[in-house]
Amino acid sequence: MRVPRVVIAGDINAHTERWNLHTKKRVNVQFWEGLVEEHELVIWNSEEGTRAGPRTEKTSIIDLTLSSPAVALNWCLLQEEATGSDHEVIMWEVLRGKEGGKPGKTVTGWDISGSKGKGKEEEERKKAEEKARRAEDMFRQLMRDTRLDDESTKEQISGMADRLRAAMTETLDRHAVQKRWCSRSKRWWTDELLDLRKTHGRVRLRKDWEAVRVAKRDQRREIRR
């Protein structure tokens, strides 16, 4: 590339495990994988799907955001933004440039919905409960032999706080999906709202206006719950 700071973003319609661990297909990847390798491009996408059409895989990642190593981005999906497209809205902004080295993908939060069994089918509920149990066991192990009492000093309390923070971070890194929240991300956005938003987008594509009205009503009701 002729310039050291480059960002490439768009629907490349290519499937590979390189940026989607959930796919087994390799489609239209030769050019893009070659470009990433030749220029050591950073892939900013998370494990979240970027398209949710009626015939797509459960997790389809075909809208990529790439950058040269000298560029750092704040990147996220705006899943709460309802559009007529079956592609998710992606927001990214350039944070800074730096000489050499790949920018760190700063984790600013975690998605723990995979550990919640409520509302899931029996098999999924059992998996979620087992995942939550393993996370709890790990946290207890990391925090073993720690105790404070009325005689604890300020330094001991401070040290305990640091250990607690480290244990929580390590547990979440291991058992939850790492997220890079952006300023417009909404923590109250749920899987139920995501499904309703996708339904709204699909019926708009079919121009079924009665179904659009119903989908919008259901989405508003879920938000108010």
Protein described:
It is a single chain. The protein has three domains: 7-107, Endonuclease/exonuclease/phosphatase (Deoxyribonuclease I, Chain A); 113-178; 190-225. The model is unreliable at 97-104 (pLDDT under 50). The chain has a three-stranded antiparallel sheet with strand order 1-3-2, with no helix packed on it. A two-stranded antiparallel ribbon has the order 4-5. A two-stranded antiparallel sheet has the order 6-7. The termini are far apart. The protein is of the alpha+beta class and 225 residues long. The chain has five helices and seven strands; from the N terminus they run βαβββββααβαα.
Mean pLDDT: 77
Overall tally of domains: 3
CATH superfamily of the largest domain: Endonuclease/exonuclease/phosphatase
Task: Report the major sheet.
Answer: 3 strands, antiparallel
Shape: globular
Helix content: 25-40%
CATH architecture of the largest domain, by name, is 4-Layer Sandwich
Query: How many separate helices?
Result: 5
Strand content: 5-15%
DSSP, total strands: 7
Structural class call reads: alpha+beta
Radius of gyration: 21 Å
Element order: H for helix, E for strand: EHEEEEEHHEHH
- As laid out across the biggest beta sheet, the strand order is 1-3-2
The N- and C-terminal alpha carbons lie at a distance of: 50 Å
- Reading off the top of the CATH hierarchy, the class of the largest domain is best stated as Alpha Beta
Which spans of ≥5 residues are poorly predicted at pLDDT below 50?
97-104
